[in-house]
Amino acid sequence: IWGNCLRVIKDNIPQISYQTWFEPIVPVKIDKDVLTIQVPSLFFYEYLEEQYIDLLSKTLRKELGGNAKLEYNVVMDNAHMANQQPYTLNFPTSNKADLRNRPVSVTNQEKPDIRNPFVIPGIKRLNVDPQLNGDYSFENFVEGECNRLARSASLAVAKNPGKTAFNPLFLYGNSGLGKTHLAQSIGIEVKRNMPEKTVLYVNANKFQTQFTDSVRNNSQNDFLNFYQMIDVLIIDDVQEFAGKTKTQNTFFHIFNHLHQSGKQLILTCDKAPVELHGMEDRLLSRFKWGLSADLQIPDFETRVSILNKKIYKDGLTVPEEVVYYIASNVVNNVRELEGALISLLAQATLNKKEITFETAKQIIDKLVKKTSKELSIDSISQTVCDYFGLELDILQSKTRKREIVQARQIAMFFSKGLTNSSLSTIGAKIGKKDHATVLHACKAINNLIETDKDFKGQIKEIEAQLKS
Ligand code: ADP
Ligand code: MG
Question: Region entry Domain I, interacts with DnaA modulators: which residue ranges (predicted)?
Answer without folding.
Answer: 1-79
